[in-house]
Specification:
Strand content: 35-45%
Distance between the termini: 21 Å
Largest sheet: 8 strands, antiparallel, barrel
Order of helices and strands: HEEEEEEEE
Number of strands: 8
Helix content: under 10%
Length: about 120
């Protein structure tokens, strides 16, 4: 059920277009290759996170942003937001996004130890 709601939120949120979904993890964009527009989040597993500009989604992890990020480019975009983990763990933060120029984007959170490198994917 959660995957269905996540897929619905993907199609309704502004920010990165479907052509600019971004995925981190060992399979990168191959994880969502061939998935229909409404089923992208059904492909999620424990090793990957999917970013659509308005949220960053994992199997048991979610970050939302005050305003959606636009397409990654050579400027640093800054947004307020929060991340949630299972249980009562909600952490507010400041997040930055920029295109690294090599087909990846870097997303960083104020309380993260390391930035998240995301593969910018073609439309599924």
């Amino acid at each position: 059920m959660r995957a269905i709601l996540l897929a619905m939120s993907l199609s309704l949120t502004p920010g990165l277009s479907a052509a600019q979904l971004a995925v981190n993890g060992p399979e990168g964009c191959a994880l969502i290759a061939g998935a229909s527009d409404g089923a992208v989040f059904m492909a999620l597993d424990e090793d990957h996170l999917i970013f659509d500009g308005a949220s960053l989604e994992g199997v048991e992890w979610h970050c939302g942003f005050e305003a959606a990020f636009g397409p990654a480019d050579d400027t640093v975009q800054i947004r307020a937001g929060y991340c949630m983990e299972p249980g009562p763990f909600v952490t507010p933060g400041v997040f930055t996004l920029f295109d690294r120029g090599d087909g990846t984007a870097q997303l960083d959170g104020s309380d993260w130890d390391m930035p998240l490198i995301l593969d910018i994917c073609p439309s599924p």
